[in-house]
Design goal:
In chain A, strand 1 and strand 2 form a beta hairpin. Chain A is α/β, with parallel strands linked by helices. The chains are: A alpha/beta (510), B mainly beta (69).
């Protein structure tokens, strides 16, 4: 067994207490001792000089989609390298828990921006589990890098019980025996240690594959009656609902707040997406924050919003991003897989008119700002375009910006890579978010949107952000509090990551 | 174990790196290997200055399946 003594690092124990310089002894897989000076070690200890360094509990990534990658390389080093030692999977309604591999892959790959060729053949080859317990047993056999905890995806559950075709059909409700089966499977999952259920109401997250291509995922088709059956179970058991409301229908945010409230019943622990200072609706994060504060303190709700401690920036290849699934013309393009067919579509004047009309529609709620001035081409086969905004390039070419953009995508397809910041662009507002007591820091989407989003190192960027805020004289999170938020503030009723001595401490959701 | 002096702009710089098992597919990531000299998971050394340690992904005993109770 590996044994270490880390000498004279600044120890943040994850409880929120002030840090102290101390020696840390690691032995038997645990933090065995923290004290000002540990005596000379025996030869079987590796000594590490930690002077000038911080020692913190490992960080938790509360929102990943490693469900695919973990089957290829369970090390998940892209997160571990930044100090993340626990990841949650099964987010956003999608998990690999049960059902035919093809269905699981088709629900996952387009939504999460992971190549189908990377996931589908692999699942077909290896999948030998088909139940919540069986999946955990499978995970336990892998050479896991970080610790893993699971949500059961509601899309997974619905497709498994009702069959994929019916789960993707409007107005198809589960028959009573099917509802009972869903409850039973969720209960089985909770019994074997799942954190809870994940639900996704986003209509722009679309199915991959050929059979049901471009329909939203199964969770979207469920009614509140079905959701409520399952929520009742979560409430009884004190487990967690992870959910994405429908951005096209903001009322669903409040429906989830009400579901969480303890109105003649237990409150429902709800982890909702997302407290982001989005450019499309300035101030939306404050509405979420204030609502959570009010519902949690007055109505006994237990809502936490997931938030990122950094600008929410995205690289897009052509139109290849969920943001282009927010309007029909974008989805029609992404529905096609063949470049020649896509080009043909983009050349159709009727299509272009529709694209323009929907792109410019002012009132429709949406996540992406669609401001071409606020873009930068970062990689184009025509390198002379790099570094400029699409709007500027259109002006240079003497063309209308939308026409220019469509032409450029028609010419270069996914080889045109462009960058934009979607939200969290104002540091004062970002500081408000990370300090909010009802914000859980996380939502990296690790293992998803592989070519588009890079938030794997969010804990480190939070440290840097807080440092910069303090330097500007702004009131922000204190270091110890910050370590506690990254490492121990979540959930879970399973051992969380406090570096107090001995066994990992069990904490409840706070 | 964190090197606080390396919590700098490099954390924000994005680069493209190959995916495990599919190296020709480039994923967008941000890395500053100097910021995290050591990572232990359940008492086992997992990562050192951005490099995988021998046991990571090859042996059991690092990450575990955590179960809610």
């Amino acid at each position: 067994m590996e044994k270490y003594i880390l000498r004279q690092g600044l120890v943040f124990d994850g409880t929120g207490q002030a840090p102290r310089v101390a020696d840390v002894r690691i032995s038997g897989g645990r933090v065995a001792e923290i004290s000002p000076a540990i005596a000379e070690s025996t030869a079987d200890y590796h000594e590490i000089d930690a002077r000038g360094h911080w020692l913190t509990p490992g960080f938790i990534d509360i929102h990943t989609h490693y469900d695919g990658e973990i089957e290829i390389d369970a090390a998940l080093h892209e997160s571990v390298r930044h100090g993340i030692t626990t990841v949650f999977m099964g987010s956003c309604g999608i998990s690999m828990v049960m059902g035919p591999p093809e269905n699981l892959s088709d629900m996952f790959t387009r939504v999460e921006g992971v190549p189908s060729a990377y996931v589908k053949p692999l699942l077909q080859e290896i999948k030998n589990w088909d139940s919540p317990g069986g999946y955990l047993e499978h995970l336990a056999q892998l050479h896991l890098g970080p610790n893993v905890a699971m949500f059961l995806g509601h899309s997974t559950l619905r497709a498994y019980v009702m069959g994929l075709a019916r789960s993707l059909t409007h107005k198809e409700c589960p028959a009573p025996h099917e509802q009972a089966r869903m409850n039973q499977l969720l209960e089985e999952a909770l019994n074997v240690g799942y954190l809870g259920l994940s639900v996704n109401m986003l209509e722009f997250d679309k199915m991959d594959g050929s059979d049901f291509r471009s329909r939203p995922t199964p969770s979207v088709y469920a009614g509140w009656r079905e959701y409520r059956h399952l929520f009742r179970l979560l409430r009884q058991r004190g487990r967690i609902l992870q959910t994405i409301p429908n951005t096209a229908n903001p009322a669903t945010f409040f429906s989830f707040m009400l579901e969480s409230a303890a109105l003649f019943r237990k409150g429902l622990k709800t982890s909702m997406l997302a407290m982001i200072d989005g450019k499309t609706v300035p101030g939306i994060h404050r509405i979420f924050g204030h609502s959570a504060w009010l519902f949690n303190r007055v109505l006994g709700a237990n809502v936490k919003f997931q938030g990122l401690p950094e600008p929410f920036d995205v690289v897009t290849n052509g139109f290849n991003s969920p943001f282009f699934e927010e309007f029909e013309a974008g989805t029609a393009y992404l529905h096609l897989e063949d470049l020649a067919e896509r080009r043909e579509l983009l050349a159709d004047p009727r299509y272009r008119r529709k694209f323009r009309k929907q792109w410019q529609k002012k009132l429709a709620p949406r996540a992406f700002h669609r401001n071409l001035k606020d873009t930068t081409v970062i990689e184009c086969p025509d390198a002379s375009l790099n570094g400029q905004s699409l709007r500027f390039l259109a002006q240079q070419a003497g063309q209308d910006p939308i026409d220019y953009f469509i032409d450029l995508v028609s010419q270069y397809g996914d080889d045109l890579r462009w960058y934009t910041v979607v939200g969290n662009h104002r540091s004062k507002e970002l500081n408000w978010i990370v300090r909010h007591p009802d914000c859980h820091i996380g939502f990296s989407d690790a293992g998803a949107h592989l070519r588009n989003m890079a938030h794997y190192n969010f804990p480190l960027r939070l440290f840097k952000f807080v440092q910069a805020q303090a330097a500007e004289g702004r009131k922000t999170l204190a270091w110890p509090r910050l370590c506690a938020r990254l490492a121990a503030n979540w959930p879970i009723g399973l051992g969380s990551r406090q570096a107090t001595c001995g066994k990992a401490t069990v904490r409840t959701w706070s | 174990m964190i090197q606080p002096q390396s919590l700098n702009e490099k954390l924000d710089e994005a680069v493209e790196e190959g995916l495990p098992g599919l190296p020709e597919f480039k994923r967008w990531v941000r890395r500053n290997d100097e910021a995290v000299p050591y990572v232990w998971i359940n008492g086992r050394l997992a990562s050192h200055l951005g490099k995988r340690c021998a046991a990571l992904g090859r042996e059991k005993g690092l990450g575990q399946v955590l179960k809610a109770k």
